[in-house]
Amino acid sequence: MEEDLDQAPVAALTADDLLQRVASGDRGAFSDLYDATSSRLFGLIRRLIVDPSQSEEVMQDVYLEIWQTSTRFDQAKGSALSWMFTLAHRRAVDRIRSAQASRDRDMRIGVRDLGVPVDTVAEEAEVRIEHEKVHEAMSQLSDLQRECVSLAYYSGLTHTEIAAKLSVPLGTVKTRLRDGMIRLRDVLGVTT
Fold first, then answer.
1. How far apart are CA 189 and CA 136, in angstroms?
2. Which residues make Cβ contacts (< 8 Å) with residue 15, sequence separation at least 6?
3. How far apart are CA 70 and CA 18, in angstroms?
4. pTM score over 0.85
5. Cα dist. 189→22, 130, 147, 185 in Å?
6. Are 84 and 39 a contacting pair, CB within 8 Å?
7. Which residue, of 67, 91, 114, 165, has the fewest CB within 10 Å?
8. pLDDT, mean of residues 48-60
9. Which helix (H) or strand (E) is 72 found in, with range?
């Protein structure tokens, strides 16, 4: 006579049997599944994460996921233990990636906030040289181009405002700006 699974002793049930019971909401089967598999899963997680407290957190997350998603387990695709190992491995890798991203973010912030000594004399000299280059390049524009570029970039006027100020069509302003910027790019040696 075949023994009913509900009456089978816990020791005789496999992880597959226990996981099927967990899928039906059997808390006792979940407890038995935990007892039967936790040391192996924790070993895998601990080897990957190393930190004991983070390993314990991941372990808790894994068993919560097992409880919540046990209905998705398909015995035709593999054993319960391999499914559980896959969940544990994924969670551990996610934790490692998250921790690395956090360290990288902290490093970027730390480097950004690190007080780097600034050579103000060199910086001022560089700004002065750049200003002289732009001044020389602007002198090589036609008067009309220089006027439009100055109004747009030094006075912050829009194309429409420049057209109104100079009493010229908008298209004319755009053409002068475009031609002036092309000339500036060529004179300054800027490559696109």
1. 13
2. 33, 36, 37, 79, 80, 81, 84
3. 10
4. no
5. 71, 13, 22, 6
6. no
7. 114
8. 93
9. none
